[in-house]
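Q: Given only this backbone (699 positions), what sequence would you predict?
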């Protein structure tokens, strides 16, 4: 039978709850006959299986599946793979669900295709009528106790980090894969993080309500909190982005106590600092206990005061232990697969770069492909591929409709007109400098365009240049003065380059190619670029202009440096990958690769060049003649995913310069893998350079 919803319920010794859970599923307002209900059991030793078997005899759409891995993430994956239903609901046997729970979850997904998970509010119920069971239920509603997750205390619909007992479209599972099977807990945190990275949103609706039974004793509550904390420690090695501040507060609390105790033996003031910190904590504990007891009853005052402290210590200590025991876990966020839209766009770029048509068989939303091409700065190149497909009558089962093609063509024509206007304005400024004996050397956008099959399809904004006089000396100040005297607006407040405004063109007149003030490899690379230029007598010109270009090796190194800086600081897009693919395709036989790679290592660009070469070969179809060039970087796909889905842009947000500065620092911590595995930089050292520049140099 073709079911519409797969309901996955992991179980392990749930004889006290599974019947109530199944009853709440059977009584849903959503048609029960359209549900494929799977109880995936991890080897229960109680009567769980017998109870489910009784329900199976009554209802043909209830199944009992075996989970050899025992943990919930494996159970979820087994359930999803055992059904073909387009929607997947992950429920917990320890909970009950309002009559309209599944119906509202499905409607929530159908309301917006961007939603990858929908869930709601979770009401915490006491396990039984004991004092500690009720205390634990009360504690779960306290911001001081648990941290104030939206699904516990939220009352407004919103997009959030995570929701319990979520509902997913099958496309999410197909795109990001299943839950991690090496995470016994916090698998939902990591899974929701992957969902968000893949471009989906996690939606919280407070009208979607479930009820969960809290642990019945102080001991079981602490045991649960310890396990939850340990899972957060594991996430440090898996996906730090899924960890929120509220998860770290208990860790800091426990670590502070431990450090305070040891340091007290070294210096007495540490003892008083520890004492003051504990006094502050217990004051907050008492206030939170009083507020909760005032609402629920004064008999809970002392139990709450004790339980707050115990669960915080348990959670914090569990996190510390998890940070030591989780080293064997590896980050798998690069396992996200590229969706059809992005895959089709990459295929179009491959066709355009190599001028070879190939079949496109995926049924894809071409408007989404067009939109993505625009966002990634490659719409002209993508349209070029469509023209080639049409000319060669290549197999394309799902070619864009006429209206989409017309819109795409109009955008491509607009790009060509804008570039032509920019080039004419550039020639005016370059001619002005030439009259005063100044040579203009271009790099970045306009320079890269000459390697494209059709240069007019390479989009660019500002005109980046380096000026030299007749002796090859930097003419930065002379260029600024010439511009001022001719009525152009010049802003030279930053050491690296000035901004010169000429009509609709912004010129960046560079004094330095790199952030040379940092010293080290930045300064060394700038010096190398200057030496490569020499007196300028051997530089080549762009066809039909008085604009000069960098020597090939210097151009390649700068392209790597510039793209790596974007990658680390503010995000990268597919255009950077295309620039490199076109460059290496055109120049691979002109460059001695072994020597060039030594230069990359000298300037700490070797990790990034491996990634870009791998992308050029594997995803953009470039054929390299030198088989010694490394093209199998394990971070190639992850870097593409970063370009497609990371929210790392720091500009054009309208929130001011300090927001941009803080966002730079936030990106460094959020995407620390880029520093460790690709750039081979110290993330802390890199951040310090930014902070020092902000505070001391006003950069």
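A: Predicted residues:
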């Amino acid at each position: 039978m073709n079911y519409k919803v797969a309901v996955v319920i992991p179980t392990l010794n749930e004889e006290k709850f599974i019947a109530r859970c199944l009853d709440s599923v059977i009584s849903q307002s959503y048609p029960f006959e359209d549900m494929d209900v799977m109880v995936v059991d991890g080897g229960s030793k109680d009567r769980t299986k017998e109870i489910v078997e009784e329900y199976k005899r009554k209802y043909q759409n209830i199944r009992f599946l075996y989970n050899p891995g025992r943990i919930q993430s494996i159970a979820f994956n087994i359930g999803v793979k055992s059904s073909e239903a387009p929607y997947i609901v992950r429920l917990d046997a320890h909970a009950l669900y309002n009559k309209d729970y599944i119906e509202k979850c499905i409607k929530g997904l159908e309301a917006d295709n961007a939603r990858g998970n929908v869930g709601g509010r979770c009401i915490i119920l006491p396990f039984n009528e004991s004092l500690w069971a009720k205390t634990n239920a009360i504690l779960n509603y306290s911001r001081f106790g648990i941290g104030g997750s939206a699904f516990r205390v939220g009352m407004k619909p919103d997009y959030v980090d995570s929701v319990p007992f979520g509902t997913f479209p099958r496309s999410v599972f197909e795109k990001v894969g299943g839950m991690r099977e090496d995470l016994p807990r916090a698998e939902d945190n990591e899974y929701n993080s992957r969902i968000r990275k893949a471009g989906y949103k996690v939606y919280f609706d407070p009208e979607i309500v479930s009820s969960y039974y809290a642990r019945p004793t102080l001991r079981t509550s602490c045991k649960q909190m310890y396990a939850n904390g340990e899972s957060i420690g594991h996430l440090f090695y898996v996906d730090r982005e899924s960890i929120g501040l509220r998860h770290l507060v208990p860790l800091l609390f426990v670590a502070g106590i431990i450090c305070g105790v040891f340091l007290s033996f070294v210096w007495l003031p540490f003892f008083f600092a520890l004492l003051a910190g504990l006094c502050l904590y217990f004051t907050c504990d008492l206030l939170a206990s009083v507020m909760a007891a005032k609402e629920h009853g004064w008999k809970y005052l002392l139990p709450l005061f004790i339980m707050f402290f115990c669960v915080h210590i348990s959670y914090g200590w569990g996190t510390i232990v998890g940070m030591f025991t989780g080293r064997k876990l590896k980050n798998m966020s690069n396992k996200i697969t590229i969706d059809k839209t992005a895959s089709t766009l990459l295929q179009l770029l491959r066709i355009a770069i190599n001028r070879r048509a190939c079949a496109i068989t995926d049924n894809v939303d071409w408007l989404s492909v067009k939109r993505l091409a625009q966002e990634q700065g490659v719409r002209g190149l993508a349209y070029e591929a469509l023209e080639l497909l049409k000319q060669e009558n290549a197999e394309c089962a799902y070619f864009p409709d006429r209206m989409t093609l017309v819109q795409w063509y109009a955008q491509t024509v607009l790009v060509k007109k804008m570039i032509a206007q920019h080039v004419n304005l550039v020639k005016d400024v370059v001619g002005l400098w030439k009259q005063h004996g100044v040579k203009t050397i271009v790099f970045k956008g306009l320079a890269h365009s000459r390697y494209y099959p059709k240069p007019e399809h390479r989009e660019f904004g500002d005109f980046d240049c380096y000026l030299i006089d007749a002796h090859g000396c930097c003419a930065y100040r002379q260029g600024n003065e010439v511009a001022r005297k001719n009525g152009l607006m010049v802003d030279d407040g930053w050491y690296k380059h000035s901004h010169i405004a000429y009509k609709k063109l912004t010129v960046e007149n560079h004094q330095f190619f790199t952030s040379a003030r940092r010293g080290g490899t930045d300064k060394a690379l700038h010096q190398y670029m200057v030496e490569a230029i020499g007196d300028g007598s051997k530089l080549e010109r762009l066809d039909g202009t008085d604009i000069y270009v960098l020597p090939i090796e210097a151009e390649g190194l700068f392209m790597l440096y510039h793209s790596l800086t974007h990658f680390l600081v503010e995000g990268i897009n597919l255009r950077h990958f295309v620039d490199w693919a076109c460059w290496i395709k055109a120049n691979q036989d002109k460059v001695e690769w072994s020597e060039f790679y030594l230069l990359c290592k000298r300037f700490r660009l070797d990790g990034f060049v491996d990634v870009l070469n791998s992308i050029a070969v594997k995803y953009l179809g470039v054929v390299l003649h030198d088989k010694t060039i490394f093209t199998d970087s394990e971070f190639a796909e992850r870097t593409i995913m970063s370009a497609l889905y990371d929210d790392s842009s720091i500009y054009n947000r309208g929130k001011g310069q300090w927001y941009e500065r803080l966002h730079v620092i936030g990106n460094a911590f959020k995407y620390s893998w880029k520093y460790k595995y690709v750039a081979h930089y110290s993330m802390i050292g890199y951040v310090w350079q930014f902070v020092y520049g902000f505070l001391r140099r006003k950069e």
